[in-house]
């Protein structure tokens, strides 16, 4: 059956005709709730790794300062004073950073939820995945977005803790991440076309074709894109992977909760529309 086949419900699906703004607002609500949950996960499993990475960074800075202390002291005495830098600078404490963590995940969730609502609106207008009910369609679309925006970029350029990454290469690393997101989107699109091409085939081929198409695209990108920046010498490999896994757990929580909450809100609207249709009949 074609992916654009019409559903066979007795009544028109109420959510099919929902305005763009309604879906965006639903996404905002789902995103805020998902962001708060993701913030809690990040706080529990991610913050200890951040604290360890900051401790490593401070130890490295202290060692470098100690090595340069004699030379700096002589220079300062020759200048007739001792410089402490800009005393008016505002220090950002770890408590402020941890509060900012929840703020960041909540705002990120809201933004992603709004974008998800817009994507679902476009998917409905295009008649894609119409053979699935609305809740399943939300889950499929969210899963595809997660693969493109999070999982594929993570495989190529996994998240790094503080003290990892040269500040001079931040622009290059940002462009590499954007390229990885584009690659993920191409891989998802290729998988979708492959699934549509074998829609009438045997179940094994229907599963293997989209997976193979996506893997081939990612493999080509992996060969063409630059390698991820290496960790500094002496940095704990276990801490590195613990941070990366906690980062992946946070993003997975955000997207999973976003999908489930958005689907639940959609199902609630769908059920209300069905009850209204039955009452009118």
Defining key terms:
about 280 residues; mainly alpha; 2 domains; about 0% strand
Folded structure, characterized:
- The protein is mostly helical and about 280 residues long.
- It has two domains: about 15-60 and about 95-165 and about 235-280, no CATH class; about 170-230.
- Helices cover about 75% and strands about 0% of the residues.
- The protein is built from seven helices and no strands.
- The chain has helices at about 20-65, 70-80, 95-125, 135-155, 170-195, 205-225, 235-280.
Number of helices: 7
N-end to C-end Cα span = 31 Å
- Helix fraction by DSSP (H/I, runs of at least 4): over 70%
Query: Based on DSSP secondary structure assignment, what is the total number of beta strands?
Result: 0
Q: What is the average of the pLDDT values?
A: 81
- Return Rg in Å: 25 Å
Name the shape in a single word: globular
Could you write a compact summary of the structure shown?
The protein is mostly helical. 74% of the residues lie in helices and 0% in strands. It has seven helices and no strands.
List the helices and strands and how they pair.
Layout: H1 20-67, H2 69-79, H3 94-126, H4 134-156, H5 170-197, H6 203-224, H7 237-280
Helix pairs in contact: 1-3, 1-7, 3-4, 4-5, 4-7, 5-6
């Amino acid at each position: 059956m074609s992916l654009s086949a019409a559903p066979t419900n007795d009544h028109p699906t109420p959510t099919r005709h929902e305005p763009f703004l309604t879906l965006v607002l639903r996404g905002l609500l789902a995103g805020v709730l998902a962001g708060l949950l993701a913030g809690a996960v990040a706080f529990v499993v991610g913050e200890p790794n951040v604290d360890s990475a900051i401790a490593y960074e401070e130890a490295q800075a202290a060692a470098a300062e100690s090595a340069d202390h004699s030379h700096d002291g002589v220079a300062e005495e020759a200048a007739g004073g001792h410089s402490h830098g800009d005393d008016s600078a505002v220090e950002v404490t770890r408590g402020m950073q941890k509060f900012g963590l929840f703020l960041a995940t909540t705002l990120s969730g809201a933004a992603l939820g709004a974008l998800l609502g817009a994507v679902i609106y476009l998917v409905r207008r295009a008649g894609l995945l119409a053979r699935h009910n609305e809740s399943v369609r939300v889950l499929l679309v969210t899963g595809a977005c997660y693969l493109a925006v999070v999982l594929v970029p993570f495989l190529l350029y996994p998240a790094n803790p503080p003290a990892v990454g040269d500040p001079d290469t931040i622009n290059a690393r940002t462009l590499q991440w954007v390229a990885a997101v584009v690659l993920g989107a191409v891989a998802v699109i290729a998988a979708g076309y492959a699934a549509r091409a074998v829609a009438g085939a045997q179940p094994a081929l229907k599963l293997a074709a989209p997976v193979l198409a996506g893997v081939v695209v990612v493999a080509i990108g992996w060969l063409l894109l630059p390698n991820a920046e290496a960790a500094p010498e002496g940095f704990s490999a276990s801490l590195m992977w613990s941070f990366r896994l906690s980062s992946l757990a946070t993003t997975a929580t955000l997207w999973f909760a976003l999908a489930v909450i958005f689907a639940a809100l959609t199902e609630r609207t769908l059920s209300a529309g069905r009850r209204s249709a039955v009452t009118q009949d």
